[in-house]
Amino acid sequence: MISYQSAKEEIKQAADIVSVVGQFVQLKKAGENFVGLCPFHGEKAPSFTVSQDKQMFHCFGCKQGGDVFAFWMAYHSLSFPEALKDLAERYNVQLPEKHFTAEEKKKADYRETLYNVNELATLYFEKELTHPVRGKPGRDYFKRRSISHSIIEEFHLGYAPKGWDGLKQFLLSRKVSLETALTAGVLKRSDKGHYYDLFRERVMFPIMDLTQKKRVIGFGGRVLDDTLPKYVNTPETPLFHKGTCLYGFDASRKAIRETGRAIVVEGYMDCLALRKHGLKEVVATLGTALSETPVRKLKGIGKEAVVVFDADEAGKSAALRTLPIFLNERLSAKAVVLPNGHDPDSFINSSGRDAFSKLLNAAPSLFDFYVDQKLGSRTQDIDQKVSILEEILPILAKVRNETQRSLYIKRLSEKSEVAESVVLSALGGIKQSSGKGRFKNDIKQQFTSVNTNRPIGEIQLLNLVLHYPETVADLRGHHCRLLISDPMIRRIVDVVFDRQSRSEAVTVETIQERLDRNEDRIWLREFAFRPAFCSDREVKQAVRDFIGKVQKKKIAEAFKKAIGDPRAINEILKKKIAAGRPFGN
Ligand SMILES: [Zn+2]
Question: Is residue 578 part of a domain?
Fold first, then answer.
């Protein structure tokens, strides 16, 4: 029978953190580590750092960090047991049965029941779609929109029929409590306390997560005609956070990575229509405006996004709203505006893939599109120009990459016919007034920013044991703990020594597991990214130096106690001489 710990270790052996994280974040080698743009907070210069050597990650910006499990949990919003299960499955590691604390288990079980409700609801909607009578409107709809049977199967599309309690009755028959179904977001409760189906007379699109199992976290339901609201989504639940999701992302990740581009459309049907025509690198926002988190996820695997908008005013203004997000997240973006009266679905179905690809390939940058839209036909109006500059410059001021920024400024100057020098000086004014001007804050600075307001000798001792765990036995045996006065370093070293005394591995990640305070864990992770202060050849001498210091300290303390006792002092002196050179003078 394998133990929980050994299963965890086995996963870690198989799931190299650089390759796991690398599936979601573009990583670049930087010295001994890998760096990339953090998927957990918005940033333009990479401070998200992964160490292959230590098998951990840490973001110097938002302080999120830990091992491969910590990454998996944070990225996919999973509990620890879920992350463990998911990774075990992905890397073919067998898990033993009971191994979680009661609290972990309770939380995981609760989420499991919510997944279960979603899976049952998916099944229900799929079944209803095939019902000879009740499913006909849904089938007709998909037929009309040329959605093939294989797409219906692949994406588990379904239909929520007319009526208020079809799903409710189905869930009751499967022993699901109404309260749970409410939390999962598939039922609603009236003021009078009656439960009823949230989705009615809608074609249903289950939304999957990005984990191994592709589990259903929520639903999008679309009306069959043009009545409003066009889309109803699962409300916020413990599993579903609308702002962070993209529809079809689970299926398109591979294609986005291969083509380097992500086509972003607004609706579920648009997404499926493009796929059907062979454009597999497509994702859809959930009928809502694009927000930062999905853009961060996209930039982790693709090089550019092509955002497709409807020709109507709402479509255009949605395009304009997304520009700051792309600029801030530094994902290059293009804008495709479809001919009047079309959405991606209708356009590709009527004009074909080649015509659509042409539009994609000829797409202007989102920035050009933005400026053109804003300047419009009133280019001659000076007040208009000024107000547009005022609108765009603060966005440009945030672009960290100087080459990129100067290119944008050049374009802006050309298009607005305002001299580049004027644009530049206006930009300068904005940057200054925005205060910080921390444009040169690069990764090196972040490394050195680790708080070392602590005694240098103690810092070096900790640095030594982290980089050369083989020294721990010697240092512990010679009571080097006595050298430490800093409470935080002491808490960390205590764990190190304790683990060594039990012959347990001393790694950053096993140490931090044992630290109670979050600030200790964060500090330790950042500290661990600093290089060793001595080379391999100098290690032995370093250990001797520390042991020497302990001896000195012990003797000094003994002297203090022995004051007024000549015999004791004599004894100490003898010991001191016997100790000889290795322990210093
Ligand atoms: Zn971060």
Answer: yes
496, 465 contact by CB (below 8 A): yes
What is the tens place of the pLDDT at every residue in 289-299? Answer: 788 888 988 98
How many domains does the structure of the chain reveal?
A: 5
Q: Is residue 181 within 8 Å of 187, Cβ to Cβ?
A: yes
pLDDT for 444 equals: 33
How far is it, in rounded angstroms, from Cα 53 to Cα 42?
26
Q: Are 45 and 57 in contact (CB under 8 A)?
A: no
The Å distance, Cα 65 to ligand 1 centre, comes to 9
CA of 446 to the centre of ligand 1 (A): 12
* Ligand 1 mean position, distance from CA 249 (Å): 22
Name which of 38, 23, 35 is nearest 330 in CA terms. Answer: 38
Query: 438 C-alpha vs ligand 1 centroid, how far in Å?
Result: 17
Q: What percent of the chain has pLDDT over 70?
A: 92
Does residue 440 fall inside a structural domain? no
Range of the domain at 408: 385-435
Q: Return the number of other C-beta atoms located less than 10 Å from residue 378's C-beta.
A: 12
What is the sign, positive or negative, of the torsion defined by CA atoms of 258, 259, 264, 270? negative
Checking DSSP bridges between strand 282-284 and strand 261-265, what pairing results, if any?
Answer: parallel
Whether pTM > 0.70 for this model: the answer is no
Q: Which residues surround ligand 1, an ion (CB under 5 A)?
A: 38, 40-41, 59, 61-62
One-letter amino acid of 516: D
Q: How far apart are CA 83 and CA 71, in angstroms?
A: 9
Do 235 and 249 share a domain, yes or no?
no
**Any domain includes 577:** yes
- Do 266 and 351 belong together in one domain? yes
Q: What is the pLDDT of residues 311-354, one digit of tens each?
A: 777 777 777 778 888 887 778 899 998 888 888 999 999 999 99
Return d(Cα 359, Cα 339) in angstroms, integer: 10
Q: Rounded to the nearest whole angstrom, what is the distance from the C-alpha of residue 303 to the centroid of ligand 1?
A: 20
CA–centroid distance, residue 531 to ligand 1 (Å): 21
